Amino acid sequence: MTEREKQIPMAETGDEAERILVVDDDPSMRIALMETVKRLGYVVQGAADGTEALERMTRFRPWLVVTDLRMPRLTGLELIKEMKARAPQTAIVLMTAYGTIETAVEAMKLGASEYLLKPFSMDVLERVIMNLKAGREDGVGIGQSVHQVEHRALLSQDPGMVRLLSTIEGVASSQATVLIHGESGTGKELLARFIHLRSPRAHRPFIAVNCAALPDGLLESELFGHERGAFTGAVIRKVGKFEMAHTGTLLLDEISEMDLALQAKLLRVLQEREVDRIGGRDPVPVNIRVIATTNRILYREVEQGRFREDLYYRLNVFPVTVPPLRERLVDIPVLARHFVNQSAMRNGLTPPVLSDAALAHLQRLPWKGNVRELENVMERALLLAGQGPILPEHCPPERSEEVTIPLVRAIQPANGSLWEMERELIFKTLARVKDNRTHAAKELGISIRTLRNKLREYREGEHSASRTA
Ligand SMILES: Nc1ncnc2c1ncn2[C@@H]1O[C@H](COP(=O)(O)OP(=O)(O)OP(=O)(O)O)[C@@H](O)[C@H]1O
Ligand SMILES: [Mg+2]
Hints:
alpha/beta, Rossmann fold, Helicase, Ruva Protein, domain 3, 5-stranded parallel sheet, 19 helices, 14 strands, binds adenosine-5'-triphosphate, binds magnesium ion
């Protein structure tokens, strides 16, 4: 192409918002893609590799480029880099094969809007294009700056954590699914909100669903919603969390606790980008960015057959591990002061001095409950210290020993009282923590899985009891 051509300011083919460029070195794939795009009403052009794509872009000025990853001459990644430099507003959808998923992550970091895992149906491509288009028209553009007042700051001075945050800032602007792993109380949910607030969806809904807090059946209707009369008790129509999160971010908290049947349904939503309401007739298209958290090592769950491998790969696009508090001791003074000040403000008190001795003591504690525990400890320290400075004795850890309540196993309902006592204990605990199974399990000193099995056992017990009655 000549220098003169490069300077041509506008394309000659009408409105920019109607043009899409398809880049693939496989001619039959390229033609199929171009036909789909044309059917959607767009003006389309094709290119066989990155170099040709760049040449065409100058004249054609598409709003969207759909490109293959592996191509001769200029690869998809190089193309993205080049495009972001020349036309940063152009949206990019990347097509990638199973084996190149890591490169796809790289591409999202460079600013691709979406990726499609091959093979995909043309329906999926249609939906992705429609979602991107809708996002643009709503002003959810790429590179749009976001000014958001956060009422909860995420503080850290730990070099590893700071590095993690800056990487995350990069990925936040893409649509990439982020999988956050970390011990309980490390700040996973806070990090999820941080990502949302730094994404183009910041002014859109952020919807969190705790997959461990609800029994399986309820979780399904919570996520998918249901039509009126879909099942006994469904007296009104209920909008599911997927739909509520439309155009925004959905946080699937404690994803490892979702049962396998629901995992399959979730996978379908993530792949097809549409939701089937329980009892509904037509699927509802949804445009959501997903963030998931887990305090288990999810791959281990896959190996144990408790988590679907295909879903794992869908979620694990951008994996992040939040280090436990005991591995970032420099954060302890920062956070301790922050929590004391916050708590003082809430209680209308002047923030007290935090003594060096107290800080040294805090840095030696095991912090099994991580930042959440530190928050609680500092809140209590403020009250214990009265008006004076906070000293080591004001800061005992939450639980010096793990409290474990022995649970009765393998006793049949008919055998009576021990089983009953255990059941009562479990139900009382659940009621106290408002049905949050994670918290209940923690209080009871058992795993969520054990708790779930117990609850299932009770349900089954009830059914057989009502049958014999
Ligand atoms: N870096 C941080 N700066 C300020 N506050 C923090 C930070 N990390 C965590 N917190 C606070 O600690 C508490 C626990 O954080 P959060 O709920 O995000 O943890 P979590 O990893 O999701 O825990 P769980 O696994 O138990 O659900 C919250 O009140 C949060 O605001
Ligand atoms: Mg959480």
